[in-house]
Design brief:
It is a single chain. With 45 residues, the chain is mainly α. The protein is 76% helix and 0% strand. The protein contains two helices and no strands. The chain has helices spanning 2-29, 31-36. The protein starts with a helix and ends in a 9-residue tail after the last helix. The model has no long low-confidence stretch (mean pLDDT 91).
Length: 45
Amino acid sequence: MSLCMETFHHEYNEVWPALFERMENRIVANDERLEATKGEKQLAC
């Protein structure tokens, strides 16, 4: 259980913040395109 919690804390505190910041920056950079395509149906890959 301790290893599980250590892994979670590492991911939450060290890995995820950078990934969420990258995602947020991508959303901001593509805001106009995202808004323009809002509501369009996506094709399944």
